[in-house]
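batch_manifest entry 22 of 60
target: Sec-independent protein translocase protein TatC
source organism: Acinetobacter nectaris CIP 110549
requested by: lab member K.T.
priority: normal
notes from requester: please return C-alpha cells only, no post-processing; we will run our own comparison against the previous entry in this batch. if the run fails, retry once and flag.
--- input ---
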Amino acid sequence: MTTARESTENQLPPLEEMPIQKHLVVLRKHLLKIIIALVGLFLCLLPFANQTYQLLSKPLRAQLPASSSMIATDVAATFLAPFKLNLFVSLMLIMPFILYQIWTFIRPALYDKERNLTFPLMAGSISLFYSGIAFAYFIVLPSILHFFISVAPESVAPMTDINSYLTFCLKLFLVFGLTFEIPIITLLLILAGIVTTESLVQKRRFIIVGCFFVAMFATPPDAISMIMLAVPMWLLFEIGLFIGKMLEKSKS
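--- output ---
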C-alpha cells in the first residue's frame, strides 16, 4: 500500500536526463556570460575608480581633523586600492545577474513547488544583502570612525593608509551583508524541516547570546560596533521566525 507522499512523487514528471558533458557545456555558457558581464561592467566603472574611492572614504574624511589626511604607505597603493574597490563594486552590482545565471542552470532540476520558492528567496536574499551593506556604510561606519578618532590621544594625528581603510570597509560590508541574510537562513532551515519555530522559540535566549558572541569576533574591538551588529542579528532572526510561523500556519 503506497502512502500519499509516494503517490504524489510518482505523479511528478521525471527530470530531464542529461549526460555530464552536456551539463558542463551548459555550465560553461553560464560562467562565460558571468565573466563577460563582470569584465564589461568593471571596464565601464574603471574610469570612475578614484571617484568611487572618494565616496568610500567620505565617512573617514568627515571625521579627520583639518590637519590630517589619508596616506599611502605603498608606491602602488594609489592605483591598487581604487582598482580593488572597483572590482568589489562591479561584483556587488552584478550579483543579481550572477544569481539569475545560477538559477537558470539549476531550474531544470527543480520541481514546480521548489521553483516557486527559490526565486522569491533569491530576490529577498539580494535585497537583504544590499540592505546590510547600506546599513554598514551609512550608519555603522560613521559611528565606528567617530568613536576611534574621538578616543585618539591629542598628541597623535590620525592618518589612515588607504589600503588598510579599504580592507576594513570591505570586511565590514561583507559581515553586515551576510548578517542580513539571517531571515533567509532561518526560513530555509524551517522549510527544510531541520528546525521548527517552537524549537527556535525555546532556544531564543541562547540564540541572542550567540548573536553577541559572533558580533564580538566579527567586528572591531569596541562595544559600539558589537552592539550595532548583535542587535540587528537578533531582530533579523525574529523577523525570520515570524515569517516562519506564518508559513507553518498556512500549511496547517
